[in-house]
Amino acid sequence: MLVTARVPTMAGLLETPSGPRQLRTLLDGDALVVAPGAYDALSARLVEEAGFPAAYMTGFGTAASLLGRPDIGLVSSTEMIDHARRIASCVAIPVIADADTGYGNPINVIRTVRDYERAGVAGIHLEDQAMPKRCGHMSGKVLVTVGDMVAKVQAAVAARTDPDFVIIARTDARGVEGLEAAIDRAGQYREAGADVLFVEAPESDDEISLIARSFG
Amino acid sequence: MSELGFRIVIFPIGTLLSGATAVRSFLARLRRDGTPDATLTSLPTIPEFADSLGMVEVRSLEQRFGTSSAGTKEHP
């Protein structure tokens, strides 16, 4: 495919791949982009070695591998960004990174976006949970208001320096406010400028279809 | 997923869970047998694994930049 044809295996020590452009090219292509999770640099290399066009830095896996703890918001932004830098540095494929809640309000989001961008990832996802966040598939999640999240997405879009850097807006509303609210939130995040929408934890195939139809 | 209109799919923790399961399995055998011998046939050698991490490139960079380890024994 597009990326793997040019760079058949891992990133050389002297390479400086352009993650955001590569990811945009993949997203603009015809093939479904499959991005397995990388929980550390080694697993990112294995994802690349296996031939996948992109890797996904998982927050769940980061909490597990860095701290040996569950994904309940214990990993700091600094630790996440350091982790992202090491992962993005050792592969030539684009890396999408979990950026949790953006680690605060829209002002924090500005710094978060800048630092992830400098870390060399192709894009990040921000979610509408209140801090401390928890894994999207756990119970007990608390959301911020739609307005607060819209402001964060707008801040993220304004903060990126490379227009190709991909901002993914995730909503965790399905398990808290229901599917209809989740789809409504995602729509508002799209209007706020999100490039990709991520409706977390739908509960059936029908829900997945409905989400797809809502933004088709 | 593609037919539904999705552009990207992530599999966040499949690598983590399968990696942890493989490590558990290795550790259980080591604990039981007191030696890793039974597991070794299915594992890469140290040089093979180092090569998969880019040791081939490192050796060529050592040649190119004439570092002191260039030309020495290749074991990591």
Polypeptide structure, described:
The complex is a heterodimer of chains A (216) and B (76). Chain A has 216 residues and is α/β, with parallel strands linked by helices. Chain A has a single domain (17-214), classed as TIM Barrel (Alpha-Beta Barrel), CATH 3.20.20.60. Chain A contains ten helices and six strands, in the order H-H-E-H-E-H-H-E-H-E-H-E-H-H-E-H. A six-stranded parallel β-sheet of chain A has the order 1-2-3-4-5-6, sandwiched between helices. The longest helix of chain A has 14 residues, at 106-119. With 76 residues, chain B is mostly helical. Chain B has helices spanning 14-33, 37-40, 46-52, 55-65, and one strand spanning 8-11. The longest helix of chain B is centred in the first third of the chain and has 20 residues, at 14-33. The radius of gyration of chain B is 20 Å and the shape is flat. Chain B starts with 7 loop residues before the first strand and ends in an 11-residue tail after the last helix. Chain A binds chain B through residues 10, 12-14, 26-27, 31-39, 42-43, 45-47, 49, 54, 56, 58, 60-61, 64-65, 96, 196, 208-209, 212-213, 215-216, and chain B through 1-2, 4-16, 19-20, 52-54, 57-58, 61. Strand 1 of chain A pairs parallel with strand 1 of chain B.
Key terms:
heterodimer; A: 216 residues; alpha/beta; TIM Barrel; 6-stranded parallel sheet; 47% helix; globular; B: 76 residues; mainly alpha; 2 domains; 4 helices; flat
The separation of the N and C termini of chain B measures: 44 Å
How far from one another are the termini of chain A? 24 Å
Please summarize the sheet with the most strands of chain A: 6 strands, parallel
What is the N-to-C succession of helices and strands of chain A?
Answer: HHEHEHHEHEHEHHEH
The number of distinct helices of chain B, counting runs of at least 4 residues, comes to 4
* Quaternary status: heterodimer
**DSSP E strands of chain B, number:** 1
- Count of spatially separate domains of chain B: 2
Q: Please compute the radius of gyration of chain A using only Cα atoms.
A: 16 Å
The major β-sheet of chain B equals:
none
| Estimated structural class of chain B | mainly alpha
Could you tell me the mean pLDDT of chain A? Answer: 94
* Beta-strand segment tally of chain A: 6
Interface with most residues: A-B, 36 and 23 residues
What global shape of chain A is seen?
Answer: globular
Q: Helices and strands of chain B, in N-to-C order?
A: EHHHH
